């Protein structure tokens, strides 16, 4: 059983530079999307710090007997601890960089990271970058946006359709980079061989409704074609932000 994956990051149609970063390592089963905040290239620095820190941490913690860099959470699995620790270290790494470069004080990053071991998926996220599970004729958002509009939807103040166009839709309530209190959400689930995992920044999810995302992926020839089509449609719909997507599927024919 193997993994097929495709990932693209695109500047979009409005922004002058790309502050998103991605990491796709099928051989590790590791996939990350980070959406940088702060502008003036600082967001790009923050998102790159995130993917670099996650990659280093996952490499350092591959051996269960290795010394753990932070307190081990007994309520999580081994892989859950690996991802949670990686995100907490990324948060600290951005905060440390800001201390060295005070001009970057506004920078930060969202992140969604998936670790696939066989058909077991471990997810961790902070902010409003999303993970979706796509099955035959079904799409399900796995992550909960850490955003103001998501809180209003949960409270019954806004409908999901109102949230999509609300002027505060880009206001997030959590991001990496504060170096302090941070709630990393971690979850685990089993994937069926017919299901696909989509990780994306809000530059994609904000431009394409969920139903259309599903339609595009199901009509695509392969994961590469699907991601290319998603980016193209997001740009066609306005491309108001940087656009990043990684699509992952299990291939039972590979060893």
Kindly describe this structure.
The chain has 255 residues and is of the alpha+beta class. The protein has one domain (2-251): PPM-type phosphatase domain (Phosphatase 2c, domain 1, 4-Layer Sandwich). Helix content is 33%, strand content 27%. The chain is built from seven helices and ten strands. It has helices at 42-60, 78-100, 148-154, 160-165, 202-205, 210-219, 223-236; strands at residues 2-10, 20-25, 30-37, 108-117, 120-126, 130-135, 138-141, 185-190, 196-200, 243-251. Strands 1-10-9-6-7 form a five-stranded antiparallel beta sheet. Strands 2-3-4-5-8 form a five-stranded antiparallel beta sheet, covered by helices on one side. The model has no long low-confidence stretch (mean pLDDT 93).
């Amino acid at each position: 059983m193997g993994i097929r994956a495709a990932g693209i990051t695109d500047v979009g149609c409005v922004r002058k530079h790309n502050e998103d970063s991605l990491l796709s390592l099928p051989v590790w089963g590791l996939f990350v999307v980070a959406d940088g905040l702060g502008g003036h290239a600082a967001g790009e620095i923050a998102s790159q710090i995130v993917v670099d820190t996650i990659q280093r941490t996952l490499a350092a913690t591959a051996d269960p007997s290795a010394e753990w860099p932070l307190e081990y959470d007994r309520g999580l699995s081994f892989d859950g601890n690996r991802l949670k620790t990686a995100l907490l270290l990324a948060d600290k790494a951005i905060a440390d960089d800001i201390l060295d470069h005070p001009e970057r004080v506004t920078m930060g990053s969202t992140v969604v990271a998936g670790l696939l071991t066989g058909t077991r998926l471990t997810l961790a996220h902070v902010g409003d970058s999303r993970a979706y599970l796509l099955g035959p004729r079904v799409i399900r958002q796995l992550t909960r946006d850490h955003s103001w509009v998501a809180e209003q939807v949960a409270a019954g103040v806004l409908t999901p359709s109102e949230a999509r166009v609300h002027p505060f839709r880009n206001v997030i309530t959590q991001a990496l980079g504060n170096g302090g209190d941070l709630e990393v959400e971690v979850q685990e689930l089993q994937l069926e061989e017919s299901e696909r995992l989509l990780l994306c920044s809000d530059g994609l999810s904000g431009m394409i409704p969920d139903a259309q995302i599903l339609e595009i992926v199901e009509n695509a020839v392969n994961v590469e074609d699907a991601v290319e089509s998603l980016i193209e449609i997001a740009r066609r719909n306005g491309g108001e932000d940087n656009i990043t997507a990684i699509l992952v599927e299990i291939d039972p024919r590979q060893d």
